[in-house]
Structure formats: structure tokens, C-alpha cells
Design goal:
The structure is a single chain. By secondary structure, the protein is α+β, with helices and mostly antiparallel strands. The protein folds into two domains: about 60 residues, no CATH class; about 55 residues, no CATH class. The protein has five helices and five strands. The protein has a three-stranded antiparallel beta sheet with strand order 2-1-3. Helix 4 links the parallel strand 4 and strand 5. The longest helix has 16 residues.
């Protein structure tokens, strides 16, 4: 595995792990490496310091070298508007909808066919199960975040 510091054409910086350098190149050439903030496919590797292992101490994580335009930024910036919108949306969902976990498919189907009262729900479903719901005319959509409940 290899960790790259990346930047997009809109000057957003982010990190991502890849199986190998060749895997990164293959994904980038296919247009599958996108900015984590704006979704741009114009992503390049940022300059970063190499990680060198010594026999006496564990290696620290590689840190990107600050470019001149980022050197003047504070250590902690306010979240990007897209990140804040996702955070707000997640909080709204958790406050106003019932988490039904792995029972999502059955709950959605029961509500659609009038077996249970309609209400806002969210949960987990396999892609094949979600596609079957859509084929039945049951309105569902994937959420851009993981539920707060951890399985482990």
C-alpha cells in the first residue's frame, strides 16, 4: 500500500491510499481518482517528504511539504462548504429519521405497501437489494455517509 498526498485543479489537498504506484496511475488514467472535496478528476500528486525507516525507530507518517500558497494558512481551517453541508445533512437525518439498520429493505417495502405507517428511515442495504426496491417503484437513495452506529 502507498499513501499519496494529492491536490486537484481547484487547489484542494487530500490524502489517499493506493495498492501500488501502478494502481494509482491506472486509476488516474481511467479518470477514477477524484477530489474528495469538489469531485474534480484533475488530480495530481502533491510534493511530499519520503518516509525512511531506520532500524532504531518506527517511521513517522509522511507529511506533505507545504506549498507557498498553503504555508500562510492557519493550522485548522473552517470546513469546506461541501464538508459542512454533509455534516449538517447527517445531523438532520439522525435527528429526524429512524435508523433501522439492516432491516432497511423490509421496512421500506412494508411502508410502500401500506403494512406500516410511513416515516423517515435510513439504514443499510446491499446494492442488489436497493436496486430491487427501485425496480419495484420504492423511492430510495444512497446516503453520502456511514451511520453513526458501529458494527464492531
Amino acid at each position: 500500500m502507498i499513501n499519496y498526498s494529492l491536490k486537484c485543479s481547484n487547489k484542494h489537498s487530500f490524502d489517499s491510499w493506493f495498492q501500488s504506484a501502478d494502481a494509482f496511475e491506472k486509476l488516474q488514467n481511467a479518470g477514477m481518482v477524484t477530489c474528495a472535496i469538489c469531485g474534480s478528476t484533475q488530480v495530481t500528486k502533491a510534493i511530499m517528504a519520503p518516509r525512511v525507516n531506520t532500524a532504531s525507530a518506527p517511521a513517522p507518517m509522511a507529511q506533505p511539504i507545504a506549498a507557498p500558497e498553503t504555508a500562510q494558512k492557519p493550522l485548522q481551517e473552517p470546513p469546506h462548504p461541501a464538508q459542512q453541508a454533509l455534516k449538517d445533512f447527517k445531523a438532520h437525518m439522525e435527528k429526524n429519521a429512524d435508523y433501522v439498520g439492516s432491516d432497511f429493505v423490509q421496512e421500506a417495502r412494508d411502508m410502500h405497501y401500506g403494512l406500516t405507517p410511513e416515516r423517515a428511515i435510513y439504514g443499510e442495504a446491499k446494492a442488489t437489494e436497493a436496486n430491487k426496491l427501485v425496480e419495484e417503484g420504492i423511492p430510495v437513495a444512497p446516503l453520502p455517509f456511514d451511520p453513526k452506529r458501529k458494527t464492531n
